[in-house]
Amino acid sequence: MERQTATFNANERVRPALVGFEPYDPAFSPCEVNLSANENTHPLPGEVQKALEQAMLSTPLNRYPDPLANELRDVLAAWHGVGRQNLMVGNGGDEVLFNLLFAFGGPGRSLVVAPPCFEEYKNFAKMCETSVVEVWRKEEDFSIDADALVSAAKDAALVMITSPNNPTGDLVEPALARRLLDETDALVLLDEAYVEFADTEASFVPWVHNNPRLMVLRTLSKAFALAGLRCGYLIAHETVVNVLAAIRQIYSEDVIAQAVACAAVKSRGKIEPVVRSIVSERDRLFEGLCAIPGAHVWPSSANFLLVRMADAARVRARLRDEFSVLVRDFSYAPGLSDCLRITVGTPAENERLLAALAAIVEGQ
Ligand SMILES: *Cc1c(COP(=O)(O)O)cnc(C)c1O
Which residue, judged by its Cα, is nearest atom 5 of ligand 1? Predict the structure, then answer.
């Protein structure tokens, strides 16, 4: 038998639909102030922190998790005014997004998205051999061309739109969601990863009751300050939930994540003031960024702001290298030339960012 060790290359054996994918690179560099990933950087109240730690420490690790996380589903269901049968949890919202494409996409089917938006929709669709139809937002204000989106969605299996959108910060108009449901037969996902930072009426969760094709994605990664825990969930019609329950990785939501998520959701009343203070910091940061000469800032209903300024990639590198402040560079992305996305930090972090930006712009 011929020995082929020297010429072996697993790339040649990858399933064709998966050729060319690269490991995700969040472009992270260690910095004193990290405003690059839309995490919640504000400390949680001591009492909440204690409850989370207690949940972590008192969870035995020798038993398998409950595959459907029923206790957590009940806690979430009580919050959102739906039944357990309307909820599916996942290892972050990302897993739920993947499973939606795995279940409802596939060869001969398409996903409609409205970029610039979260890149994972497209990546997961491609992995699941689902074609992607992009209806680009208008360049000036990132608004969605409703006619174009509805017409694309007429032939689609799925539509994924984000409210508030990442990275543009704007909400989906209820009229657009209405048209997608009335004029198409697609499954419509509203991704509400950041909705806790928007006005309380902004959520589409109440629509799930009367609209079986509407699905809402939520996560504990942003407002709940649990990005490292990995817990996201879908609120949807019970038949959607049942399909996802049947195809998911059975133990993807581990016992610690389930226990801590339960404690966090039960503590949501005490986390709410932290969310409100991020919102007021967002408004202050918005003003501060508007005052930087040459900067254009878009209004945002999320915990980040999108800013366009000359030489954005270089500004980002200088923030990182000279001021130890990390923000996210979108300047390479279509439709987002010279744009940076800045997470709203603590008052001290935001001050430091604004002072650094002012110094960079003045020195130019
Ligand atoms: C952060 C985010 C998610 C989900 O993140 P997880 O950490 O996987 O829960 C989903 N959609 C958008 C648009 C996001 O920005």
Answer: 93
